[in-house]
């Protein structure tokens, strides 16, 4: 073992002992929650309006306590500076904010950058452990190990961004799948004589899902004094789906000009169902080649083998 390897192992062991000692010291202290919690039990800072809106709590709430919260408080300045550096390198704050809204997550770009740094640190730690084992076994060098660790950090950051995009796309698909049913329910409620706000409240209370959460947000805005048309326009601005944008704009225009809302909702639900049917047919047509792959590479060779193998074996037995 070289001097550099010994120094690296000693530094890692010393850092681990320091972290363990710090956790033990913090665990032995009496927390503020244990002293004040019994006197505040049963109280809640969440109002009925926030509960009805289906809002998501802000990242990293301030009510956490314990050793993990203390360690997070110590590392918070470093994480914030690292998040600022990631934001300066990557940019695209507007795109991140829009994807956060599409995914139904809190509109906190800086918190998302902190999560990216955390994912990068996880990848960096895994790469450090792997490269340390390689150095102990005599494989690789210090420069290549540093490059691999930096690449692992970058992969963690990119993977978190990719995960946000996947979450936004999955929520868009869920909204699109729920739209015909929600639109039909709204149309039935409006046709039965209820007003738009009352119909919206009834549908939100009777349904659950991504589109219901968006409608609950619209309902919460109307209850705080925002005009219904303006709340639906804000929903159209948030959505990346043309169908939902047309739905929100149609409701807003119908309420402004007094056009029949039930007919508009029925027509939009029928259009979405027809679009889904066309998309399913197009997807099946694109996947015909993939459907042929098992037949060509699995079923056909097995069939040929079963057809010719007995004859080949019989010829070998008959031949002198």
TrEMBL record:
Principal localisation: membrane
Domain Type II secretion system protein GspF span(s) in chain numbering: 183-306
Membrane topology: Multi-pass membrane protein
Keywords associated with the record: Cell membrane, Membrane, Transmembrane, Transmembrane helix
Keyword Cell membrane: yes
Pfam hit, one: T2SSF
Transmembrane segment boundaries: 6-25, 119-136, 142-159, 289-313
Compartments reported by the entry: Cell membrane
The keyword Membrane is annotated on this UniProt entry: yes
Designated name of the protein: Type II secretion system F family protein
